[in-house]
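Appendix B, record 7
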Amino acid sequence: MKNSKTLTIGIVIIAVIVILGGWAMNGYNSLIKLNEGCSSQWSKVESQYQRRMDLIPNLVATVKGYAQHEQQTLTKVIEARNNASSVSKDESNAAQYQQAQSQLTSAMRDLNIVVERYPDLKANQNFLELQSQIEGTENRIAVERQRYAETVQQYNQKRNVFPTNILANIFGFKAKEYYNADKGSEKAPQVSFE
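C-alpha cells (predicted):
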C-alpha cells in the first residue's frame, strides 16, 4: 500500500513537472516567436524609411532639373526678346534687327516644340512619378508602422499576461515600446527647393 501511494505521488509529481515544463517551454517559445516577429516587423518599417531616403534625392534632383530646364528655356526666350527689342528698328540696322528677330523666333520655336511634342515634359513626368512613389512609400511606412504596433501589442499582451509574465521576467523578456512619432510631427513640414 505504501509503495502504491509513493508511486502515485511520484507519478503526480512527474506529471506536474512535465506539465510545468511543457507550459514553460511553450510559453518561452511563444515569447521568442513574438519577439522575433517584432524585430522582423521593425525591419520592414526601416526598409520603407530607407526606400524613402533613397527616393528623396532623386525627387529633389528631378525638381531642380525640371526647374533648370524651364528656367533655361524661358531665359533663352526672354534674352532673345530683350535683344530683339533693344535693336534699332530702322533700316540701317536691318541685318542686326533680322538676326535678333531670328534668334527670338528660334527660341520661341524651341519652346513651342517642347510644349507641342511634350505637353507633359519628361522631366515633369519623372517628377510626378517620383512624387507618386514617395506618396506610395509614405503609405507603406504607415502600413508597416501599423503592423509593427499590432505585433508589439501581441508580444506585450503575451508577455504581460499571467502566468507567462513569470516566464518573461525569469528569462528577461522586456516589454516592447510602440512607435512614437517625433515631437513636432503633428505640424506639416515646410518643403523648399531653394
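Remarks on this record: The chain has a mean pLDDT of 78. Residues 2-171 form one domain.
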